[in-house]
């Protein structure tokens, strides 16, 4: 048995999520698919499991071309996907979930089948328990058993270790090894280096929608880091300048946000200082930014802005103290579809007035558009702008004299010109005393612009280091959870 | 600009399709479509009295629909509008029955009471949504039933006619509480209120910061919050405005048209208002003509039963078909536009 994906392209509007991806997996192989978040792994797997139809490209299983229009087609062809959040129906019982999508069968027979399959892999279910009472790991086990029973020969697992316990992970890995030993194809999607290292025979690495390469394990971890993040180029750090007073003061801050938490973090950010937050996505950077912004409540510790305690103040009150937050989802948590550039400026700048002075508003918008070189007119709608211009608009909406700017992925998805422009704007503000705290997956960006870098791993702060003591290599290892220094 | 043409195009296609469908229906019931359409025209705007009927039915519909433009802008499905009309009517009826003063004063107070009655009912649905996490559709629907139950209770209970409890309604209100009319039925005050409501809502949505912020909250509450808007406040205010205007519609219906409280006091104006707003594409500017067209069909189609022996509910079928087809044609066009998109990017 062999699975081959060649030259897969999948575009969403302007975004090329898969831009010529090739993947080859043979029978009995535990194949890793490694890449940073946003590298296009999930898109590729959704193409393979029939959720998305590719724009172009070919997929073959045992030499036969696959034409998958829906997940139903995929499972009929023997391809089963285990999603990051197991797709179970929580109010249904374990047995009912097991029966979903199956051909008509006697419930008693199904009960026996389920028990047999579970026993084979060392799982234990109560078939009548509501699925809601199962842990994430148990839901995965149920889903695996169900897919096998439906005849899956190719099993795809998308970031399956998120939110499961260590013992469940060990059991999962054993199961996957058993399945591969029986000649199945297992594709294990992850951005975690050690998992791929511990489990897989071969690995395909993806970066920015493309396949970077394919290697047989084991290989030195540096090689994988380099493939994931690109060449380790020496980065010129920022000239250490004189930094001002403490602008943002975290004293022993703890926060819980479902899977991630910040525990007892003390960090002082001075005026004109840039702090980079490194780590794989979902490791806690967003939690910290949202805590500083006042969108999440702290469970302990205190937060000060320019000397005054804002711990109990909400998001809107913190804006008043000069703290602004720009999340990653530009059209989801920043701009508003259907509203024009002029309307965005009027929303952002606020006014106590009743009637919008539209003539003045358009004039102001024109001025801001040229000052921030946004490609658009006052009437251009937010969704009509390119990613780079959306980011320019968002920055233009933040007042000039902002004290602390919290940003997620300031340049994600932007071309180099836009990215440079964004940092030019940010540095301009930094020189005038704004503190910037930003999360990024781009190591070069982190090293180039930060004074200090906070590295997150597994939902915790792993290390706070000066940029002078870091390079791409060390940072890459830290992000993967290994401190080699 | 192209989008505007596409919209106008889809509306025309829908109207032609709805007319064709209605014609077929009429043919199937053995009536001449041309004759039927002529009767509807005659029966709604054929003479002064008919026009007055149509206009007086138009007023509460426009008031309810204007309010719905505001709630739709905030992204709320204010299904509770029917109950808000009823509560406005109840509040106005209370004033008309219980207070005795100069006509101008009673009328003013009764109309204001109508606004407040509808406003509070709307706010209640809004608070259930904002603080109780009850979807406004279900909250509103529940409150509709409560309001309808309340009006029936009042009509056959505490406010029943002397001696008889009948669902045909309460005693007529004292004359001084009636809206003054030109001729038999037409109340200029009612028409002016409706016009003011449409113009006011149009201006509110197009010209004010409130309207802009409301649109922002309705289009994307998460972004609006990040930008710094209090989404709760805007949702509640929208429900208050929507409820207040619906309540005013109920009040006009009570003291301007029925002159008493009847169980079917709202006459379905709330729900019909939702159809009008859907057909108007959520824009205030189109509400007045579309509501008039709807009422022409409603009022005119009573002639069909008188003259041709057809069931007068045919009017409702036409209105419903029209909205369904508009939504369908619009959805179909949007889908086609989406399909075209990927090729544009690639080329």
How would you sum up this structure, described in words?
The complex is a heterodimer of chains A (485) and B (347). Chain A is α/β, with parallel strands linked by helices and 485 residues long. Chain A is built from 16 helices and 20 strands. The longest helix of chain A has 16 residues, at 166-181. Chain A starts with a strand and ends in a 6-residue tail after the last helix. The model of chain A is unreliable at 233-237 (pLDDT under 50). Chain B has one domain (34-325): Orthogonal Bundle (ABC transporter involved in vitamin B12 uptake, BtuC), CATH 1.10.3470. Chain B is 76% helix and 0% strand. Chain B contains 14 helices and no strands. The longest helix of chain B has 33 residues, at 314-346. Chain B starts with a helix and ends with a helix. The A-B interface holds A 11, 13-14, 55, 315-316, 319, 325, 327, 331-339, 343-344, 346-348, 350-351, 353-356, 358, 397 and B 207-210, 212-213, 215-216, 219-220, 222-230, 341-342, 345-346.
Keywords:
heterodimer; A: 485 residues; alpha/beta; 6-stranded mixed sheet; 33% helix; 26% strand; B: 347 residues; mainly alpha; ABC transporter involved in vitamin B12 uptake, BtuC; globular
Give the total of beta strands of chain B.
0
Q: What is the CATH fold-level name of chain B?
A: ABC transporter involved in vitamin B12 uptake, BtuC
Strand content of chain B: under 5%
* Number of continuous helical runs of chain B: 14
Topology, element by element:
The complex is a heterodimer of chains A (485) and B (347).
Chain A lengths: L1 E11 L2 E12 L3 E6 L5 H8 L7 E6 L2 E2 L5 H6 L2 E4 L11 H6 L7 H15 L14 H14 L4 E5 L7 H16 L3 E6 L2 H7 L2 E6 L2 E7 L4 H9 L16 E12 L2 E11 L3 E5 L6 H9 L6 E6 L2 E2 L5 H6 L2 E4 L14 H9 L8 H14 L15 H11 L6 E5 L7 H16 L3 E5 L3 H7 L2 E6 L2 E7 L5 H8 L6
Parallel strand pairs in A: 3-8, 3-9, 6-7, 7-8, 13-18, 13-19, 16-17, 17-18
Antiparallel strand pairs in A: 1-2, 1-4, 4-5, 9-10, 11-12, 11-14, 14-15, 19-20
Chain B lengths: L1 H27 L4 H13 L2 H26 L7 H18 L4 H28 L5 H21 L31 H20 L1 H11 L1 H7 L3 H28 L10 H11 L7 H14 L1 H7 L5 H33 L1
